[in-house]
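User: Teach me something about this protein's shape.
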Amino acid sequence: MVMGMPGSGKGTQAERTAATYQIPHISTGDIFRSLAQSKSPIGLEAQTYMDKGNLVPDGLVNKILWDRLGEKDTVKGFVLDGYPRTLSQAEALEVYLQSKGVPLDAALYLAVGKQELRKRLEKRLHSPSVSPDFPERGESHSSRVDDQSEVVERRLKVSESEVEALLHFYQGLGIVSIVDGEKEPDIVFAKIQESLQFHS
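Assistant: First, the predicted structure itself:
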């Protein structure tokens, strides 16, 4: 599992980790978009929440994840990205994995300061395509600097309490490794590999 604030680089590092260890990269944002595009009932249900700017309820998110984790390609492992997002999701995930006899090996936390996060997120909002961090909560792209700054601050404020709760939860399980996410991506990934060797 790769955790971190929006803009910490967790998506990039989760993808790279999954590719290197040849295990699936499981991103809730990717799953939601895929389900919505396929017009599946559960995908359309999730889309109704995102369209209103609301978070998809934990129960629905959990059901989607359980279905994905039950697929054959996860037998040798997986990398979670964007899930769990809340403490209740983390607790439900722990119960689910224990029931399957598949405990999490490591929770990698990419630590990035707020000033750097703001810089990265504002840069991301200026790009032609909007980051998955934003539409997943129903936030739309705006060309106005004031609007963009407001979206960034709102995301950081909400995410800070969520990520802090997750960090404490997984520290309690003794599986957290904190990685400096402000370094160059290659250096960050090298530290991730070191951490995974420690937890293996």
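Now, about its shape. Residues 93 and 191 are 26 Å apart (CA to CA). The longest strand covers residues 107-111. If you'd like, I can walk through any region in more detail.
User: That's plenty for now, thanks!
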